[in-house]
Design goal:
2 domains; oxidoreductase; globular; two-stranded antiparallel ribbon; mainly alpha; 312 residues; single chain; membrane; 11 helices; 49% helix; Cytochrome p450; oxidoreductase activity, acting on paired donors, with incorporation or reduction of molecular oxygen
Length: 312
């Protein structure tokens, strides 16, 4: 892990424990917003200031690279960093694509690429160890698709349909942001018969939607096959939100999860510790829903992949 990645990971570890706590008391007692008795608000603000300073350093470094004759705004998009692409947009619409906006997009993508991704992979591996037939089926699909001479690559993911089903079913059962991000009503509106004033904070209970028995058959059971052959098409699932406010890192997260999970299944055989089912208790101390009991397993390299593993 690079020095920059370690630094950003450290900042995230400072932010996450306080995100939920910052509003826990003030939602019930609004006066607490001003008093901040437990200091959570100040801790969040301080951690966010560190994050913003870190991201601004990245933006400034990329700008210096362009000024020194690196990949310029007129170059093809392919081969440019995301920040460079946004610099191109900044030249066209400077009032929209400010450094603050670029920093915000980077924060969303980086957070999605670390905390959310790791949580989904941990839930997926826990589910697969408790459902070994699904794990074996995914391994067989990977073996048929690419053999044993190379690792799963990004171009392979569209052809690994059962792996995609496993990821979808994991996100259905354990959406890592179970209430998404808070939204705010921009005008007075009515939802489900309730009058919602403008400026009201609104939360979407994705966890409940994904387990609604009126929509999903056997909603609390892990059944990857429910997503096969488009059978779940039309059913409401929004682990990344929806519309123009949905997570901008969705594509990156799904791609990363597919590559990491695919490589883990391709290269190793997995088993439970002591033949005991993996504990699926949900943690609730942070904004991202982690496992209450960290994932543990036994694994050993697959003999058929030994040559590939030796080259890593």
């Amino acid at each position: 892990m690079s020095v920059e990645a370690q630094e950003y990971r450290k900042v995230l570890d400072e932010i996450n424990p306080h995100v939920g706590m910052a509003s826990l008391y003030s939602d019930h007692l609004p006066v607490m917003r001003w008093l901040d008795v437990f200091g959570n608000k100040n801790k969040v603000v301080a951690a966010l200031s560190k994050r913003d300073a870190f991201l601004q350093q990245l933006i400034d470094a990329e700008r210096r690279k362009l000024d020194d004759g690196g990949i310029g705004p007129s170059s093809e998009v392919e081969g440019k960093s995301m920040i460079s692409v946004m610099f191109t947009l900044q030249k066209e619409e400077p009032q929209v694509y400010t450094d603050t906006m670029i920093s915000g997009v980077c924060a969303s993508l980086f957070s999605a690429g670390t905390e959310l991704t790791l949580a989904v992979i941990e839930w997926a591996m826990s589910l697969l160890l408790n459902h070994p037939a699904d794990l074996k089926k995914a391994q067989d699909e990977i073996d048929r698709s690419m053999g044993f001479s190379r690792l799963v690559a990004a171009e392979d993911l569209p052809h690994l349909s059962y792996l995609k089903c496993i990821i979808s079913e994991t996100l259905r059962l354990y959406p890592v942001a179970p209430l998404l991000l808070p939204h705010q009503s921009s005008t007075n509106c009515k939802i489900g018969g309730y009058e919602i004033p403008s400026g009201t904070m609104m939360l979407v209970n994705v966890y409940a939607i994904h387990r609604d028995p009126a929509m999903w058959e056997h909603p609390i059971k892990f059944r990857s096959e429910r997503f096969e052959d488009g059978k779940a098409e039309g059913l409401f699932m929004i682990p990344f939100g929806m519309g123009r406010r949905k997570c901008p890192g969705k594509a990156m997260v799904l791609r990363t999860i597919g590559l990491v999970l695919g490589a883990l299944l391709q290269c190793f055989d997995w088993d439970q510790v002591g033949a005991v089912e993996v504990d699926m208790t949900e943690g609730a101390e942070e904004f991202v829903m982690p496992k209450a009991v960290p994932f543990e397993s036994l694994c050993k390299p697959r003999i058929a992949m030994s040559d590939v593993l030796k080259m890593l």
